[in-house]
Amino acid sequence: MRRWNGWGDEHFSLELPANGAAFLNERIGSARPLRDAELEEVTARVPESRLPPHDRVLTDAETRVRHARGQSLPDWLAMRSGDFGVFPDGVAFPESSDEARDILHWAEEVGAIVIPYGGGTSVAGHINPDPSDTPVLTISLGRMNRLLDIDHESHIATFGAGTPGPLLEAQLKVEGYTLGHFPQSFELSTVGGWVASRSSGQQSLRYGRIEQLFAGGRLETPRGTLEIPTIPASSAGPDVREMILGSEGRMGLITEVKVRVTPVPERESFHTLFFPDWNAARSASRALVQSRVPLSMVRVSNAGETETQLALAGHEALIGALERFLAWRGAGAGKCMMTVGVTGTRRQCRSALRELRHIVKRHHGVYTGTYMGRQWARKRFTMPYLRQALWDRGYVVDTLETATDWDNVDTLTDKVESNLRDGLAGEGEAVHVFTHLSHLYTQGCSIYTTYVFRTADDYDRTLARWRTLKDSTSRIIVDNRGTISHQHGVGKDHAPFLPVEKGELGMEAIRALCQMFDPGQRLNPGTLLSREDETS
Amino acid sequence: MRRWNGWGDEHFSLELPANGAAFLNERIGSARPLRDAELEEVTARVPESRLPPHDRVLTDAETRVRHARGQSLPDWLAMRSGDFGVFPDGVAFPESSDEARDILHWAEEVGAIVIPYGGGTSVAGHINPDPSDTPVLTISLGRMNRLLDIDHESHIATFGAGTPGPLLEAQLKVEGYTLGHFPQSFELSTVGGWVASRSSGQQSLRYGRIEQLFAGGRLETPRGTLEIPTIPASSAGPDVREMILGSEGRMGLITEVKVRVTPVPERESFHTLFFPDWNAARSASRALVQSRVPLSMVRVSNAGETETQLALAGHEALIGALERFLAWRGAGAGKCMMTVGVTGTRRQCRSALRELRHIVKRHHGVYTGTYMGRQWARKRFTMPYLRQALWDRGYVVDTLETATDWDNVDTLTDKVESNLRDGLAGEGEAVHVFTHLSHLYTQGCSIYTTYVFRTADDYDRTLARWRTLKDSTSRIIVDNRGTISHQHGVGKDHAPFLPVEKGELGMEAIRALCQMFDPGQRLNPGTLLSREDETS
């Protein structure tokens, strides 16, 4: 069963290896975990629902607890402390677009605010209710999780919007296809959520972001149904698909999603390489993507991340041997790891590997085979469980991400890292910080920074530490040509920073669209557009 | 100098080869050209300008004639007959974004309608003024035609929006780059026009459509300036870039465009192949794109287009020998030609060619080398001159284009072709029709149909013939899952058909955006949204 107060399945957890704990102890000191609340404590605190009864709407306390929070760090602290804040007044589970439409109408009749809910994996506060005078109805698409149609000529599959990653890939695999969309949240996030939040998967270099995979579908809005037809490309005016992508529940409920699928590739492999320093690693990754080498993934860790990953990998003897080999080949202290995905026909993979080797050599990279890549691929979706393992030792981990042009990658990375590293210096607390570039484009790339700090003596002060780090770094990102989010969306946490990026007129354009689809402003208020923006 | 009444440069023209004329004569009968008007006749008819004087605005008759019409078939007939309809009251030529903004304000002060003008190559009535009680000011971006900045790390170039294709590529080439955007209108169309109309180039398979190339830029709107920052990818809400793409002058004047450029490729070649029939050719093209063979172009002519192209090629002896060779190899009557572009590093080209050969063989294709491909590449931008050559013989040529999913390509092509072929049967007139698929996507492709018919006894009846064919076929396209335009935009000619594709809410969303940027509805009225849509 799914954890009510953290990530993933109750019956799965990661262990922090002993040398990993020692590594963190050495970097930021030893720590003490805070006490976790029990489910019973929390359900006892859930207030009476303000919604009238409806046969598709559950109002029991546990259901409302389980749909009150996402997976952001404040969500985590809320769930662990038991101090949840606001609960939805009920959760609806429509099983078809027609039912979803009916429930949307019912919500309007009873004057409820509506929060569309996919997998509940938001790390930016998309699905948390704010305090309100009117009841809040969360509509979960979770029961709309089936492959509804597949077109073998056009390679288009139609899914219920609530289909989560593993169920989507399993249903496609039977038919011989993959979507190839693998965000870190893959285990729980849904295809409708991917569209609503403009998600990006680990192999976007081959398959594209969800913007490229989303071919059309259906949206139930307060103004009626919007059917987006599947057309491969068009010059017929602004693209309605692109208005719905990133709409974060503000324009309607996405109920059906048509996606562009790919036959299961003949071959796939993941390779690791090491570079003597950051400059070589970053240059090599830029050269790979700007030369259009057809890889499915390139992920480059900076020296801090490389060191941390090797420390946390366990297998001390093996890692020791690897490091001696790398040092002998010129990649010693300061070395940076690159993981590369190669996917396609046998011919395509062979040719991509040939090009890869050619470019890597020019940048003094050392090829270390597929062993570590296989490990990475096997564990790729278990990373979110690491928060629990660290939490149990008294550490808090969160990530910040952005994207910027290549000419700005180093500058922005440095600013983000040093702001985080020094962010708690006032309290005399160290923060452990490291970064990788993952999603690569000819123009630039994403920057994904992880930071670890110790819990304070209580929940409030722990949240305050996070707030200090998050807000100041978010400001640095948007003030330095970064997007407030490359792959996590806006939600409520990033909404105050959006206007810097979109500009005044850009914000007005988004507001005009939300206003058109939802004149009553009943859908997901406070998400995407902060409340101040809405009234301006 | 540019022709005032047709396509391109006055000093260049194409000849119809003798066997080409015989071919058309045999298909649709011999024809007689209509009389062309002289420039002096037309300028004499230009009414007094209704605009007050402004030092950046020209109001002389010839300038107004030269900016009154685009390159649609109705535009052609208007220019040839001398019966232009409405002229703009003046044409402004700003030389900077600031000047463009000033002129936009001035237009508002004097109550003028504004038509943004790039290369004047619209084939859908984007830049033609409608009759109006208020003066019409056309703002040409033609003097903003320079490379303003180039970022060698991020591969982003900034251009004045009025930079036409050849000048854009020439300025990039000096720096070692190409944009790779080659629409048929390349000789005259501009980068701002490409963005405004969601253009697609012949090698979009490698470089992407303008949607993928447009990284950001500047828009001067009645509500102020919108700066779109260059961010490689983002999940921060709906993408403002995508609202401007296809805005067709309704939201503002695009004054600066930042594009994603590519280093000039090491190699490029164009190859031709022949398939025994349509089924084989279409299947092969679908297999190529769905297998992700990294080609830069795939263009497949149906049997009608293949026959016509070979007839119009001249070189009878050579073509005869080719056809005997092809027949011997199994591609006789009904054969279909494919032209393939291979672009990239030496390694990439070699590998792509290997995959091409493998797939083509499975579909019984016959490879005929690069001779015809080289000819095609050399003449690729001269095709629009063919309208003149046919006109001089009394024939009218126009094209219709759409895109649809692979499962619908044959059905829609058949419906479009047979509707055109029989469209003038009531008058006892034959129409010569042929088609190619050019822009290929894993999901589907574009369908590009050319039709040739004879001029009637006068201009009005010739236009009536066109109207009959165009309107009924446009209806068929949108009623059968095609987009009203894959690469020509909406303009005024396609506006009545747009609502079928966008749906009621989609249209309202576009209207809401236009209304937000241009509350006075002063920009390009009747384009994109027909006047009926606007008042609804």
From TrEMBL, chains A, B:
Lineage: Bacteria, Pseudomonadati, Pseudomonadota, Gammaproteobacteria, Oceanospirillales
Keyword Flavoprotein: yes
Key words of the record: FAD, Flavoprotein
UniProt superkingdom: Bacteria
Site entry (Important for enzyme activity), positions: 299
Active site: 448 (proton donor/acceptor)
Keyword Transferase: no
Residue ranges of domain FAD-binding PCMH-type in the record: 84-264
Pfam families to which the protein is assigned, alphabetical: FAD-oxidase_C (PF02913), FAD_binding_4 (PF01565)
Binding residues annotated for substrate, in chain numbering: 387
PROSITE patterns xref list: FAD_PCMH
GO molecular function, one term: alkylglycerone-phosphate synthase activity
Cofactor: FAD
GO biological process: lipid biosynthetic process
PANTHER family: ALKYLDIHYDROXYACETONEPHOSPHATE SYNTHASE, PEROXISOMAL (PTHR46568)
Positions that bind FAD: 116-122, 248-254
Organism in which the protein naturally occurs: Saccharospirillum salsuginis
Protein family (similarity comment): Belongs to the FAD-binding oxidoreductase/transferase type 4 family.
Signal peptide limits: none
Name this protein carries in UniProt: FAD-binding oxidoreductase
SUPFAM superfamilies: FAD-binding/transporter-associated domain-like, FAD-linked oxidases, C-terminal domain
